[in-house]
Specification:
Blueprint (H helix, E strand, L loop, with lengths): L29 H10 L5 H12 L16 H8 L5 E8 L4 E7 L5 E8 L4 E4 L3 E3 L14 E4 L2 H16 L12 E4 L9 H12 L13 E5 L3 H8 L6 E5 L5 H7 L8 H15 L3 E7 L7 H12 L7 E7 L13 H13 L4 E3 L20
Parallel strand pairs: 4-7, 7-8, 8-9, 9-10, 10-11, 11-12
Antiparallel strand pairs: 1-2, 2-3, 3-4, 5-6
Helix pairs in contact: 1-2, 4-5, 6-8, 9-10
Length: 375
């Protein structure tokens, strides 16, 4: 019999005393990069040249940056483009169209990202923290605890690495670009708010300031840090908000998502509803289906009650996630018949519902499976 999942405390702030990753141009706005170049005794336009290589041309080798003076090229790159991620290994599934990469950060911390290529889009699932402090007992990342926050550039560099692999034709389907980014890897994005918002800005700013993605292609996930959801509402960036709800009632959600002991289901759903109201962006409710835990038909009815109490003007969509098994977990995926009944009851009430395609399960790359171990 497997050991029960450990009960960990909620951790809202990263441990003190951790060294900071080196400053990278992706940490800065284009104006700040220019100022840094001048501060280093360089012409300001060098910052734009380096930004173009990084964000637009996706160049990583200084030798390919031929518009930079050869005598100062290595120095320029070391100053503005320090190496942030070292690949430890890449695992593939779905005939190579799903790729999970384990990265070692400058201080030895390990994180994972997943590239998923579909016929009509390419999605990168990125990590925002090394580990996670939210302590959700069914999630492998949550059971590892929080090591530290990632910097804006460390987050962005995961996407740029994926974009490079596509541009080089390393992913089946020929050259392509990353069209979607989901902050659903390791960590609670809104617990690392400043760096995550910086990353969203870099992803969506036009080149050479950033990658030039549509904000509508970016999804920021949260277990429900209500003050941060409210802050995101005021940012004016129309990303998609994904709320990991997992239970419609406080009693069960307190167990599954410990942050619920601070912000109730009603408070959390109210904040998500307000985000939809202000941004006019439909909120996604993430709901991991766990056999005999949260998949009862009456809970589907209760979930519909909770969501429809805020109106049925198309503000919300439910995304059911077949639970992905993790070591030590006492829970397993719902019976397919129970899952179908859950969907039926939500749809009967007029709540748009889909079941997530669980890509990468066999390489532990699916939702809730990222643990970043070298074993």
């Amino acid at each position: 019999m497997s050991e029960p999942a450990r009960s960990l405390p909620l951790v809202m702030a990263e441990p003190r005393g951790r060294a900071k990753p080196p400053r990278h141009l992706a940490d800065l706005s284009l104006e700040e990069r220019t100022a840094l170049a001048v501060e280093q005794g360089l012409p300001g336009f060098r910052a734009k040249q380096l930004s173009t290589h990084y964000f637009d041309r996706l160049v990583s080798d200084p030798a390919d940056m031929t518009d930079l003076p050869a005598a100062h090229r290595d120095e320029l790159v070391a100053t503005m483009l320090p190496k942030l991620l070292d690949p430890v290994r890449t695992m593939e599934a779905d005939r190579g169209t799903t790729r999970k990469t384990l990265w070692r950060l400058f201080d030895g911390a390990l994180v994972e990202s997943v590239l998923m290529r579909y016929p009509e889009r390419v999605t990168m699932c990125v990590s925002s923290q090394a580990g996670c402090g939210m302590a959700c007992p069914f999630c492998a990342t949550g059971q590892g605890g929080l090591q530290r926050n990632m910097s804006t550039a460390e987050i962005v560099d995961q996407v740029v690495a994926g974009a490079r692999s596509l541009a080089r034709g390393e992913v089946p389907g020929g050259p392509g670009r990353v069209s979607n980014v989901v902050f659903m890897g390791m960590g609670e994005p809104l617990a690392n708010y400043k760096a995550v918002i910086g990353a969203v800005r870099r992803l969506t700013e036009p080149a050479p300031a950033g990658l030039g993605m549509s904000a509508r292609g970016v999804t920021v996930s949260t277990v429900g840090l209500v003050p941060r959801i409210n802050q995101l509402t005021d940012e004016g960036i129309p990303v998609t908000l994904a709320l990991s709800l997992h239970a419609p009632d406080d009693e069960l959600r307190n167990e599954l998502v410990p942050i619920n002991t601070r912000f109730s289901v009603d408070e959390t759903v109210d904040a998500a509803w307000n985000y939809a109201r202000v941004t006019k962006r439909r909120v996604s409710i993430e709901y991991a289906m766990m056999r005999g835990i949260n998949d009862q038909a009456w809970r589907a009815d209760l979930l519909a009650d909770v969501l429809l109490a805020r109106g049925d003007w198309g503000w919300v969509h439910v995304n059911l996630i077949p639970l992905n098994p993790t070591p030590g977990s006492k829970w397993t995926a719902s019976d397919p018949a129970d899952e179908r009944e859950f969907v039926r009851r939500l749809e009967a009430r007029g709540v748009p519902t889909t079941v997530r395609d669980t890509r990468g399960r066999e390489i532990d790359g699916a939702c809730g499976q990222l643990a970043a171990t070298e074993a």
